[in-house]
Design a protein that fits this description.
71 residues; 3 helices; 2 strands; globular
Length: 71
């Protein structure tokens, strides 16, 4: 449960065609990960960020502007 933004960055390098991503209760994920996902993974359709402490509404808003996503 200690995955950070750096870990998400490495994951993106392996799979830019991600369709779904579950970040549930990953406490160290921030808006930085969402912005990187929005930039690099345009095909993502489902994202779960429930229980993340450092993901903000602003980050979700920017993410949703770049991806057709269902929350």
């Amino acid at each position: 449960n200690k995955i950070t933004d750096s870990g998400v960055s490495e994951l993106i390098k392996l799979g830019k065609n991600l369709l779904e991503l579950n970040l549930w209760k990953l406490e160290f994920i921030t808006d930085k990960s969402l912005l990187l996902l929005a930039k690099e993974c345009k095909s993502i359709r489902e994202l779960n960020v429930s229980g993340t402490r450092f993901v903000t509404r602003g980050g979700l808003g920017e993410f949703s502007q770049n991806c057709k996503i269902y929350f």
